Amino acid sequence: MRRAASSIVFAGVLGVVLMAGGGSAIAAGACTGSHQEISFANWAAAETATAKEVANAIAAFEKASPCITVNSIAIPFAETVSQLTVMTVGNNTPDVMELSSGMPQALAAEGALADLHEDAASMTNDIQPPILQDGESQGRLVALPLSLTPHGFWFNKSLMKAAGLDPNRPSQTVDELTHDMATIKAKLPKVYPFAMMTAKGAYAVVNMWPWMQTFCKTPPMSNDHLGWTQPCTEQAFTWFQMMAKKGWMPVGNNMKANRELFATDQVAFTIDGPYMRGIVATINPKYAPNAAFADAFGAAKVPVGPSGGSRTAIDIHQIAMGAHSAHAAAAWTFMKFMVSSPQDMQDFIIPEGGLPPLISLQKQFSAQLDQPYQQVWIKDIIPEARPIPYNANWYHASDFMVNALQKVVDGGNVKSALNDLETELKHLYPHDQP
């Protein structure tokens, strides 16, 4: 779950190392060889909702591998790329890192990440090809999926029912969604029919991207074209502007604010990951019981738009190894545990609201993944998810993309905003090759 933490814990650079594993109450077996310590930079330890779960996973690993101690470095999600870049420049890259889609390409360009092709050869056939592709950079496999969390379409069944809509039939198309949003606003004027992130931050582009795929058969930044002035992009941004003008969505909110609105029955529809289940329960305890949550909320594929399909964007939690780790074998042992161990699925991945990264583990844990929203992700959302066209310049480029989005939702001219965006990006991609 991705909510900014208020404190930063940074080994060797900005603060104190959290001994999430070494200080565990689970007794480790005797080490019969040489002892090694590895560092694990992650945002799970920085968030109240997942700190306990990731500590349990680390403790379970240390019990199974008593010669390895894992020092957990807690970094807020929003600070991950910047702080890992600082550590890389200072020759202090962690041995292992929890990343999110787009981060591997940025950090690989800094020389921070190891190539995992050889180590991971035995498990790559157990990962859906588009999911595996999300961790590739310049022909190298620099990150593996840790938790599958692509965005799906969440809806509040209680609000739909109150507005006279069928709570068991969410919007199937963008046209239906537009109709349903108008109905909700007319019947429930204090409710936002829709929410997406429009605050500053690269994650606003991630939250927007499923809609770019919905409107465009060839989304921007794909197939060696920038694509921001094509008609389908203009159509998508005009749709965003219409919702803002009509008061159908809050303007200027980050993900945390939108999630709080959704959890407190103030937003009817949104795009987010499967971990929304845990976020809602944390914000609003009345939805903690599975039955109460299932009665109030549902999930489905992203509504079909002009592109003719429902293809959400891959946005997953990943794990990577530092390119110059002094303990590469120990780091890989830990990574393999986190990706493929049933114990980690039980202690960390499933409790945090994610889905196992390996196809075989999804089958193995089918009984634990039987909630309706989980089945939607496994059967409908993950198979149709496609990578965002990340590259080394993406985080810089995303600043321009968010600026254009903000101009549009604030009422600016759509064509002008997109023309300006295209012009700005040509300086980053002079040959129209993102």
Characterization of the model:
- With 434 residues, the chain is an alpha/beta fold.
- The protein folds into 2 domains: 36-149 and 316-387, Periplasmic binding protein-like II (D-Maltodextrin-Binding Protein, domain 2, 3-Layer(aba) Sandwich), CATH 3.40.190; 152-311, Periplasmic binding protein-like II (D-Maltodextrin-Binding Protein, domain 2, 3-Layer(aba) Sandwich), CATH 3.40.190.
- Helix content is 41%, strand content 13%.
- It has helices at residues 51-64, 80-89, 103-109, 129-133, 157-162, 174-187, 203-215, 231-245, 255-263, 276-283, 290-296, 328-340, 342-349, 359-364, 372-381, 394-409, 414-428, and strands at 36-42, 68-74, 96-100, 136-137, 140-141, 144-147, 152-156, 192-195, 267-272, 297-300, 313-314, 317-321, 386-387.
- The chain has a 5-stranded mixed sheet with strand order 2-1-3-12-6, with helices on both faces.
- α1 runs antiparallel to α13 (342-349) and α12 (328-340) crosses α13.
- The longest helix has 16 residues, at 394-409.
- It is globular, with a radius of gyration of 21 Å.
- Mean pLDDT is 91; it is low at 1-28.
